[in-house]
Design brief:
Elements (H helix, E strand, L loop, with lengths): L5 E4 L4 H12 L4 E5 L7 H6 L7 E3 L5 E2 L2 H12 L4 H7 L1 H23 L10 H18 L14 H16 L1 H6 L4 H12 L1 H6 L14 E2 L2
Parallel strand pairs: 1-2
Antiparallel strand pairs: 1-3, 2-5, 3-4
Length: about 220
């Protein structure tokens, strides 16, 4: 077990969430180290000076610092749920929506959820409404006849973007659950939150310290 990759993660980070989902679904064992973003351990800084999660550190020194790279790595090793197939079969739609969520939606999400961190900008509702306009693109793709975007099981696209929809809900849970106008999206997110795999990968671990015994994840 000493030669397992080490995954530095933060439980609530949407990028780390999607990386953990793919590692879990592909059943790849790793050592997981929970970090707090305000006190990144020096061991992580040494291999990833940007100090953002997730980071996957291999025994040979190789480092993956982007969630999408970690997801691809997992799929290429053991794609038990045809995640790569769902990506390739829907490549144009997947790229279009993923690019929007990871760029303009994430920008508006941050200014909505963390509005007080920004100076001289519009109130949070301004960015919430801009985010909703972006999400309406996803709403059109959700099919009432299937529980997930493309069919009856989570696709690469579902799992890549749902952690960010979760974060959008957390910004104002009452508004999202009761007033948010995208009804199919609300149902879709709730299905994700109830999904056993999501619940498994969200189990809490204490913040990692050098003296700790390894915690294993993935299998």
């Amino acid at each position: 077990m000493d030669k397992l990759p080490i995954l530095y993660s933060f439980r609530r980070c949407p990028y780390a969430i999607r990386a953990r989902i793919f590692i879990k679904l592909c059943q790849i064992p790793v050592e997981i180290r929970e970090v707090h973003l305000k006190s990144i351990p020096q061991e992580m800084i040494n291999i990833s000076p940007t100090s953002t999660v997730p980071v996957l550190h291999f025994y040979d020194g190789k480092v993956l610092e982007e969630s999408l790279e970690i997801m691809d790595w997992a799929m290429n090793l053991n794609d038990k749920h045809d995640l790569k197939k769902s990506k390739l079969e829907n490549i144009e739609k997947t790229k279009e929506i993923l690019d929007i969520i990871d760029s303009s939606f994430k920008l508006n999400l941050d200014k909505y959820k963390y509005n007080s961190r920004y100076k001289n900008i519009e109130p949070p509702e301004h960015f919430r409404d801009k985010a909703i306009k972006i999400l309406s693109i996803v709403e059109k793709e959700l099919n009432n006849n299937t529980p997930w975007i493309f069919n009856d099981k989570p696709s690469y696209l579902d799992l890549s973007i749902l952690p960010f929809i979760r974060q959008f809900r957390i910004a104002d849970t009452h508004w999202f659950d009761n007033e948010m106008p995208l009804n199919k999206m609300r149902d879709w997110l709730m299905r994700f939150l109830d999904w056993s795999t999501f619940q498994d990968i969200m189990k809490k671990n204490k913040n990692w310290e050098v003296k700790d015994q390894p915690i294993y994840f993935g299998k």
